[in-house]
Design brief:
Elements lengths: L5 H7 L9 E5 L5 E6 L7 E8 L2 E6 L1 H4 L7 H9 L5 E2 L4 E2 L5 E6 L2 E6 L6 E3 L6 E5 L5 E6 L2 E6 L6 E4 L6 E3 L4 H7 L5 E3 L5 E8 L5 E4 L10 E4 L9 E8 L4 E3 L20 E10 L2 E8 L4 E7 L6 E8 L12 E2 L5 E7 L3 E6 L2 E2 L5 E9 L2 E7 L6 E6 L14 E3 L6 E7 L2 E8 L2 E8 L2 E6 L12 E6 L4 E6 L11 E5 L16 H11 L3 E6 L8 H4 L8 H17 L3 E11 L1 H12 L6 E5 L10 H8 L6 H7 L12 E6 L8 H12 L5 E5 L9 H20 L1
Parallel strand pairs: 3-5, 39-40, 39-41, 41-42, 42-43, 43-44
Antiparallel strand pairs: 1-2, 2-3, 3-4, 6-7, 7-8, 8-9, 10-11, 11-12, 12-13, 14-16, 15-16, 16-19, 17-18, 19-20, 21-22, 22-23, 23-24, 25-26, 26-27, 27-28, 29-30, 30-31, 31-32, 33-34, 34-35, 35-36, 37-38, 38-40
């Protein structure tokens, strides 16, 4: 069965992301839910909505407001770090009670009341980046030209609270590695009383400058990118308390670990990273992390003096995982922080209580009073929403005790947003995507999902393969009859940290895998060592070597699947992937040509010394000390081994995995006399968003694989 429309639909719907509600905010009384969504599965323009009294109502339509002007460069970078490809309203902020919302369009600031009335444009000193309402709804703080400014929602009193001292200094923005590798996209946080802000000051002057040009437009000057590659200088981030009365206090953070720090082959106990910051009813709460990522301090901040106090010293012999949503404080002030639970389980310390063993905690969603909401897994291919009541718990109970409630049901990947007794349950299941509003634990309504139904229906067979019980999904052509003939095999992994592809949920990659299957392939997707959801030992099995164990798991899964399904042709095996998956695909044909016969490698980091500090030093250490680890994992160093067809694809505007990775590997292959195919994508970033490029890229990959495996 041929499905020629899938590549076009895949591109037109932005990977089936359009029409999907997201960015939920639930008011503390549970009465209102704010969210962003476009009007259809092929509509790229996001609108701001409110769900109230069982019905949806649009609050702001960008098409009626005008785009405001060109996107500020800092906002473009912020969206690139978030892999944001939509237009219109892509994010917003609200006051504490979700009665007023603020957003930007093309650098223009808008506010709208959720109880009615048209959006109002607020005049500002210049283009606005990341506007955030004060909890009382009276002021909006925003970044403009690297300065942190505030303005009244009535348009009065626009003023700077902090202005950059040099062109390389910004106030209120996240630095590159915070946004790209730590998951912190914000740079300022309001106080609950709306009288001050905790603000990150970033000085990038020590960070090396790389120049990114567009060869398709030689008339344009190259763009300077401050990129902290492994082993080089990071941006310097400091925290400051800025008050509306104009006074300012620097947060006094320690420079180095003053307690026991776990040493290693390379040790650097200087605090270079600020992974998290927040300001709740008890004051500011921050996390500092050392350069070698084996120590982190959770600290409180005195909002009057800037003095810090240590709450918890977190340590790990390999690296410390950053658990989204932590640290967090309950209403009582008890701190929720990550920690290992017996049985190699990533759990939570809630005061003196541990979450039950066997629950792999994925993310902390928030709290209401002493009730904690989080997502976790008992089986890696599913993620569920849990509520954990800490009230009236005895100190130091046995792990596994305490009231625990699972809200989500059935196979799927579930998450939620919470306020009062209202839970917005966001569920991705094998059948699709639903958003259910619960009150008191009972369904009271739904928020519509307008995503298009894919023209190809995924038909994965979920498998557990080999000695390591590798979670895999096998996609076969819907028209294939067992025993009717051999099928070439195509592996489509990501297999890297931070992302699972083998889940009991329909996602864009499951649709693409089935489309390749319909073209006559047996498509195998495997999550091996280094992927999340299976505990610390599993995740850290790649410490010091991000290629060998990952590649071994792909080979083991392939052979185990072939033993169970005789129609898999091990004489015709291809592999394709993007980013880490592209790195793995190229590494597969370089190191295991006995197994893999062709590869398509997209946006592959080929020389790991050229990837950012926080991400790459976490796994491989410092390149000046652990040079062998970088050399062994580098694709450039092994270019001479290529024997199989290899297509390299790369966006020439990619400022995450820069095009230098493509060029260095291609140059090394040419120097070794190894034929290969290069497909440059002018103007494309790490996320290929142009419709004609995204659609035709799938077709070109298919054509390359067909010729390479069947020629």
């Amino acid at each position: 069965m041929d499905s020629p429309d899938l590549p076009l639909q895949f591109a037109r719907t932005h990977r089936f992301s359009l029409g999907v509600p997201r960015g939920f905010t639930v008011s503390p009384d549970g009465e209102r839910v704010l969210f962003v969504r476009s009007t259809a599965g092929d509509d790229p323009v996001g609108r701001l909505w409110v769900y109230e009294d069982g019905a949806e109502r649009m609050l702001a339509d960008p098409l009626a407001l005008g785009d405001g002007g060109p996107l500020p460069e800092a906002e473009r970078v912020r969206r690139e770090r978030a892999r944001e490809s939509a237009q219109g309203v892509v994010s917003y902020s609200s006051d504490l009670h979700a009665r007023v919302a603020a957003f930007s369009l093309g650098g223009a600031l808008w506010v709208v009341a959720t109880d009615g009335g048209a959006p109002r444009r607020i005049r500002t000193a210049g283009p606005v980046v990341d506007p955030r309402l004060s909890p009382d709804g009276a002021l909006v703080a925003y970044v403009c030209g690297g300065a942190l400014r505030v303005v009244g929602v009535d348009g009065t009193g626009d003023r700077a609270l902090a202005e950059p001292e040099s062109p390389q200094v910004t106030y209120g923005l996240a630095d590159h590695v915070a946004a790209e590798s730590m998951g912190r996209g914000r740079g300022f946080w309001w106080s609950p009383r709306s009288d001050a802000l905790l603000v990150a000051r970033v000085d990038a002057s020590a960070v090396q400058v790389w120049w990114l040009s567009d060869p398709a437009h030689p008339e344009l000057a190259p763009r300077a990118v401050r990129y902290p590659a492994a082993g080089t200088a990071n941006a310097e981030t400091s925290l400051h308390l800025l008050r509306l009365d104009g006074t300012r206090t620097t947060v006094r953070t320690p420079l180095r670990v003053f307690g026991r720090h776990i040493a290693g082959e390379w040790t650097d106990d200087a605090f270079e990273y600020v992974p998290t910051a927040a300001w709740d009813a008890h004051g500011p709460l921050i996390t500092l992390q050392t350069r070698d990522q084996r120590s982190a301090y959770v600290m409180t901040v005195d909002p009057g003096t800037g003095a810090t106090r240590l709450v918890e010293h977190l340590r790990d012999g390999a690296w410390l995982d950053l658990l989204p949503g932590t640290p967090l404080r309950l209403a009582s002030g008890r701190v929720v922080r990550p920690g290992e639970v017996p049985g190699d389980t990533r759990g939570l310390h809630v005061g003196d209580t541990l979450t039950p063993r066997g629950l792999q905690v994925r993310e902390v969603l928030g709290s209401t009073g002493e009730r904690l909401w989080f997502t976790a897994s008992t089986e890696p291919t599913e993620v569920h929403v849990y509520a954990f009541d800490h009230a009236d718990q005895e100190p130091d109970p046995e792990p596994g005790t305490g009231p625990l409630c699972q809200l989500s049901e059935g196979p799927g990947v579930h998450t939620a947003a919470v306020g009062g007794d209202t839970v917005v349950l966001d569920s991705r299941t094998p059948d699709g995507h639903t958003v259910t509003v619960l009150r008191g634990g009972e369904p009271v309504g739904r928020i519509a999902v307008h995503a298009e139904e894919p023209v190809v229906t995924p038909r994965p067979r979920h498998l557990t393969l080999g000695e390591r019980e590798l979670r895999s999904a096998l996609y076969l052509p819907s028209w294939h009859e067992p025993g009717s003939g051999k099928l070439p095999v195509l592996l489509c992994p990501y297999a890297g940290p931070g992302l699972q592809l083998v889940v009991h949920a329909r996602a864009w990659w499951t649709v693409v895998a089935q489309w390749f299957a319909e073209q006559g392939y047996a498509v195998l997707v495997t999550d091996g060592r280094g992927t999340p959801g299976r505990g610390g030992a599993w995740a850290k099995a790649v410490h010091g070597d991000q290629l060998t164990p990952v590649l071994d798991d792909q080979v083991d899964a392939l052979h185990a699947a072939a033993e169970r399904f005789a129609d898999l042709d091990l004489g015709r095996v291809g592999i394709r992937g993007w980013s880490f998956g592209g790195f793995l695909a190229a590494g597969a044909v370089l190191h295991r040509p006995d197994v893999f016969h062709a590869a398509v490698a997209g946006a592959a980091p080929t020389d790991l010394r050229l990837y950012d500090t926080h991400w790459k030093e976490r796994y491989l250490g410092h390149p000046d000390v652990q040079a062998d680890a970088y050399e062994n994992c580098s694709l450039v160093a092994h270019a001479h081994r290529l024997e199989r067809p290899l297509m390299l694809v790369h966006g020439l505007a990619d400022d995450n995995v820069l095009p230098v990775h493509l060029l260095r590997l291609s140059s090394a292959l040419l120097a070794a006399g190894r034929p290969h195919t290069v497909l440059p994508l002018p103007g494309a970033s790490h996320l290929v968003s142009r419709e004609e490029v995204a659609a035709n890229l799938l077709r070109l990959e298919l054509d390359f694989l067909q010729k390479s495996l069947n020629g």
